[in-house]
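[Q] Does anyone have a clean structure-token version of this?
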Amino acid sequence: MATKRTKVTEKNNFTLEPLFPRYVGYADYFLSTPVSVQVRNDFSEAVTLQVSIESDSGLLVPYETQAEVPFESAVELTAEGIFSPLLLAENDELRVCPVTVTARLDGKPVASASAEITALPFDWWEGLDGNAERLAAFVRPRLADCAAVLADAGKRLKKWNKSAEFYGYTGADKNDVRQIAAAIYAAIKALAVDKAGESDFSAPLCVAKPGSVVKERSATAAQLAVFTAACFEAARLNPVLAVGKNGVAVGVWLYESCFLDPVTDDAEIVGKYVSEGINNLSFIDAEDLFSSSNAAFTPSEGHFRQKLRSGLYECFVDVRRCRMGGVRACPLRGKGLKGYELLNEEEMSDEAAPAPIPALRKLKLDGKQPKNKQWERRLLDLTTKNSLLNFSGKNAVHLYEAGADELYALLLEKGGMRLKGETAFENTPAFGGELARQRRELVLLEQKKGILRACGDSKTTAETASRLMRRNREAEEETGAKVLYLAFGFLRYVGEDGVARYAPLVLAPAQIGRAKGNEDYSVNVSQDEGYFVNSTLLEFLKQEFNIDVRGLGGDVGALKIAEILAMVRAETANMKGWDVVSDVYLAAFSFQSYLMWNDIRNHIGELSKNAIVSALLNNRMERTEVAAPPEEDDGDPEAVLLPLPSDSSQYSAVALSGAGASFVLHGPPGTGKSQTITNIIANALSDGKRVLFVAEKKAALDVVKKRLDSIGIGEFCLELHSNKTDKTDVLRRLEQTLALAEEEDVSGFSERAKELVALREELKAPMRALHEKRRLGISVYQAILLYLKNKNAPDILDIESSFYDSLTEEKLSECRRMILSAAAAAKECGGVKNSPFENVNLTEYSQTLRDKLFCACEVMLAEIKHLKAFLALFLEFYRQKVSTLTLRKIRALSELAGKLVAGTYDKYFTGADEAEFYIFFNANKRLDSCLEYYYKHFKTLVELDKELPELKKLCEEGGDWKLNRTAKAVAKRLDKASLRPLDEKDVFKFLETLVEIYGAMGRIADNTQLARAFTDRSGRFNFKKRADFLADLNDLHARAAAVFMDYNPDAFNGMCIRATSGYTKPVLEGYLKAAESYFLAQESFLDITNADRDKLKEEDVLDYFSSKASALIDNIDMLPNWCMYRATAQKLSELGLNFITEALESGRFRTDNVLAGFEKNVYRNFLEINIPADPALSRMTVGTLEETVEKFRLSWDEFARLTREHIRAELISRLPSADEEGSLSVELNAFTRLSKSNLRGAGLRAMFAEIPTLTGVVAPCMLMSPTTVAQYLQPVADQFDLVIFDEASQMSTAEAVGSIARAKAAIVVGDPKQLPPTAFFHTAYVDEENLENEDLESVLDDCLALGMPERHLVWHYRSKHESLIAFSNSMYYDNRLCTFPSPDAMDSRVKLVLVEGTYDRGFTKRNRKEAEALVREVVRRLSDPALSKSSMGIVTFSSAQRDDIERLLTKEIIARHLDAAAYDREEPLFVKNLENVQGDERDVILFSVCYGPDSTGRVSLNFGPLNQAGGWRRLNVAVSRAREEMLVFSTMTSPMIDLAKTSSKGVAGLKAFLEFAEKGRTTLAAPSASVRTGAGIGKYIAEELSACGYECRYDVGASDFKVDVGVVDPKNKHRFLLGVLCDGTDQFSVKDRNVLQVQTLKRGNWNVVRVNSVNYYNNPKREIKRIKDVLDRLTGADAKSGSWISKCAKPYKAVKPTASEVAAFVTSGENDAAIMARLKEIVAAEEPISRAFLKKRCLATFGIQKSGSKVEARLDALIDGCAFQRDRVMGTDYFYKNVRAIEIGKFRTEGENAVRRSGDDLTVYEVVSVVKAALGERVALYMDELYALLAGVFPSVKQGERFQAFLRDCISYGEEKGLFVRSVSDRISLA
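[A] Here you go.
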């Protein structure tokens, strides 16, 4: 226990005794004369006192020390160097200065003592009563007067033949030294110095003449003696001064020696040393030096010895010994411009050579700067707002300095110095004020004493120090960055504006705190960090003035601060008005991006541990293999959670982020970046990851934060955008998150996910099957398109099934190619059928071939002519005719002619009689005929001899053969010879045949001699001989009959008999030769043409070949094409496509439809095989497909809701509980402690560092700016799992790198097509010497350059009309954005408004007429109630035009009182230029181009920022801001811009944009790539609908997404009435295709019908009818309009009143049972029914007229007691008995006595059912139409605003349930 002090505070316990000198002069300061204080402690305990010595007169430097004084004893304290050189150097009189010594105990004074010290004027010595050693301090050997004396002495020495050089004792004996002393004495004597008065050495006196002894020739004895001693010392001799009360002498050692003590009073020893014989010393009397004395040197020595012996001298001061004791020569004081000036010894001497000029290091940046240095440079603020470039000295402490290096060294040495203001403050210049030496010496002295003197009064200094301390502490707590610096030296520079500014040069990090005793402030510098040169200034000098001193930007520890200042001074010496001043300030330095700059400068080592930062530093990214996540159609809904709706491109980004990959996400305008970011964050948080979301603008953070709030996880997302964030607010938000109650996880989440997958697969299967590539390399859809394309082609090809079976993709492609080639070649030949080249099978053309063919044709024609001539003679001579002449006939004729010529038939005709030969020939013919018939029935010929005449007679006369014996006998013989039993009825005809046979034989034998050749002598015939003999004759006639037309054998026989004379032989021989030549020519012709012999024409062969040869000759030029055709045909045959050539050659196909016919057959066969074989396609029907789509859509909506609940529950489950153990509980306790103290003494940065794990649980997502990242987060790599950058195209890499480093993966979201980072705080300067290390414009560009993976958002949602984004999409995004067409897509919403005006180019740079026109339009719209609903924004191309429009607009708005319409709204009117409009959007954007023709009509091509590099991006930003409409006000048109005069991409874009605004989308280039390779099925649907009388367009839209068919509204040709969507592409996901596209189109006022390709192929008429039915409903052509009411309505069953009661009936409680029974009755009859209406109906049925609060409360209690089933919708309870009552479908209507009178009486289910039923017929209705419709259905319900509000709520409920889609114009349609 501490002893209680009772008398400590009594002053009599302590005694102070100052032990101070009586006199003090400058020498005391100069030689640091110490002073002492004795402190006595009479108390019984030892104490520690604070002892201070002060002087208000300024004599002393404030001094304070602590002394431990033992009890009842005393201690002596010694203080050195406490005299102020300022007062002593400037003092000119004896000045008494009071001094106070104070002792304090615990801050309270306990003892004090006073003393007086007399301050001596400069160069005064205190006399013999003072310190005699001090006299040596006034001996100044470096005086100019000394040099003059020595010069004269040297001349005298020369006269004495001595050396004139003064080397002291070196090489000299005593005589030499004595002669030097004598020479000096003589020189002084020669000056004739007059005595200026007597010297009293017993009192203080002046011992050094203020002026020049040589010039003024006047001095006192003391002054002259001291001067003489100085001359001796200047001659390098050791002087001694002898001083007495009334006299003084000066002596010199005659050899190198000195006294043992600096001062001696031993006159005896001195007497010995000067005595003869010893001569160690030589003294002269000072009186002899005056002009009044004539004594020379030697007599003067005697005078001294006399006075010495008389005891005149009291002490002897040995100057050499004093010097050895530290008594140096005092500086010399002289008058300067600003008062007294002091010169020390070195400055008074010209003996030493000047110090060498310091060698300045190379200041230009040498070598390549590392990337991090470039980042630092990029972050520097190079504006004059930065105090590092424009330092005014305000809010800073200006310090006295006596040398920057000395001050810095003392700060390091002492570890801290007290900051003090001045007591008597004199105004000091802010910069460039020079201190006198004495002031500098005082400053240095104080600094050595640990005092840092400020140029200001104490109060101001303390206040400023307090502010700086507070600011530095706050900065360090909140940001970890130091902002307090000591600035050493400033550069004064003059900018272009002529204003002089000051910038600090050398900065040393400093700290300021309270000093001991809390009375002053203590300043210290870091022992480790050193000092550095102002990097901002170095960069500024390089960029603005091309002064490169960036070599000082590195480690300058090896340089002194003074050297650095000198180097900069040297480099800027040529700059007029520039200077370097050595002022020192203690100030806070920071700038906008200071924290990020500090992050990189001081922590790059830690930051570079991050892989991406390392890649950026090294310009090389190491590839990290990340497994590609599945696409949306294959992904698990539970694996990638999407609380907000997303399209497939957004899903791809979310999925990739979940895989831990870093990538660039391209987000063009309106593609849902913030929604995607929200989904990425939510998905990451669900996976337990920490996310850092970084955006430059707070608006971007707010948008995402609002979305995070909307999905229920906003409490886990901490937004820290501003560096002024309220700590209390952050604590409150974290506490609220920790207080969240435990929520159970969502039930049915996984089940719904599985259901979703099943539905997705059900929808995906048909689409996949439809677009799956199959055997022929095409899909079913492609086959359908190809079939429909060729459906009108002839269908007559006979293709075998084996061909289809062998068909492959390659073969089909080859077939198609060959068919096309064949068709093309055939077309060139004029067709195949009836072609002159028919059967010319040549495949390789050559000139030789052509010549051969031509010659063969000519020969053929000649031979045919020759043959025809002989043939005519042949026929004429033999009197025959030939019908159709064939090759066979020609050959037969040749054979016949040959036999005739050979005489083969002469044996028959030679010498024959024509008549006899006629009988012979014809009898033989008859005999052969009868024999042929006879032998068919009989084996042998029955011989007749005698029986012949009788039988002949019988046959001629007729009769019954049975009655004739002869006949019967012959009949018997016949029967025996018969092949089969004879029938009696046939006997007679056989008898006749037998008679004919023998008759013919008789005629043959009787008429010619020829019969002898085959009869015997008896005349019997030898039938074998006969056959042999007649063989040649029969051959002749057979040949002739085969050749000749209408052949008459008898006539021919006659000609043959006559020709036996030989007259026909020449003809026959000629014919034979002609035929032979013809056949040779024909064979040659056929060989050359490679003709197919089987295809040669048989009839009219000569005419055929004649015409063929003639045609070939006439068309010989077509031979090459025919060869090509035949070559192709040959390949077709090889491919099995003979049917193609056959069809062409047969004429069944033309060359223009042969391919179509082939493809039609092929693809029809393909479809007939593949569709039935694929279950997914064969089962497809319209009804099941639409039903599945609806289930899928509703399931997605429900799953999204469950996802939001699931993520929230997951995050809450991770929160620590109060009783939790482990590291998290430790951090929770720490947070509780910090929270209770409200972070007193700590900042958010320190808190986050102390509770990192807890922060990751309570705030796993942090939304920050790059600045706050550096401010609040420790520079530790990879502390987050993911960092997301928004608007990364506007963020430089230097700004982003600190955020990147703090996360393992980065998602860089932005649009490289939009504006780069603003140049407001950053310069566009590029370091050409370090180009490879220069960053690109943004972090987005740098990440792309690294090859970081990329994802693209492709669906554009912002623009409510496609034309608003069409220009940007075409011009800058290569039509990669998928935009939604508008129903009024035929008109553009971008319009050019031409104004008659001029651009004031040379003066105001504005276009007043254009501005006025624009303002009129704005005022018109603001004044119109309907138009004013749309928000507006004005964008100008120049700031001058913006200012002009703002002035005009403000004036008009005020005058017309339109302030509320313009500004009091969610999106107020704005006026901005191109530079700052990014991020803004409005419904209507009005442009003012401003630029245009000037007053002379000339158009300058200088369009301001558009001409700059990247100006096109400014234009892209500007033209993509509108949602509904864009008006372009301009005084120029597109043709006025001549692109030949400029290469600016921005100007080219402006020209194209003006043309687009004027003419519409027709000016845009066609897409470079499209989803579709041609027209889809929509083309054919459009053709069919057009046939029904509807005007249609197919492929409606300006982007890759098209509405397949747009049906034009018959009543409004500018709008589409219906859109038809087909399944023509599988590019989009199931959700995109079935939900996103349809819903978005409906929200855009489209009526939509979907058509499936397979259904259309199978039954096109049915699908067209289905579309037509919808069109009929939309156009009112449906005769059954209104039938929906009868289908869906049912009567309302109301419970009838049964009593007449009063209110007490309810409130009494006695009738509760009856009332509850009535309530149940009403619910059962009138379900569903709202609580309010149930109470109303209950009272009505009891006849109770009035109600009240008690009645209402009682009924509420009874209703709750009934425990009805209930459904709460829109804050209202609806009661029901049967769950079907709350299903959407039926609604109830009432007649005259309706019980429902207001909207509150209706139920939401019925209203939704009415709307749904009406939309089923009407397709779409606007809200005002719905009001009227509901009034018709419920006529008794009171209409009004309340009812309308109820209807709007019902529609919203229907939207939530996925039943309706509300468009932007409040148009309601079925989902």
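[Q] Thanks! Anything notable?
[A] The chain has 66 helices and 51 strands.
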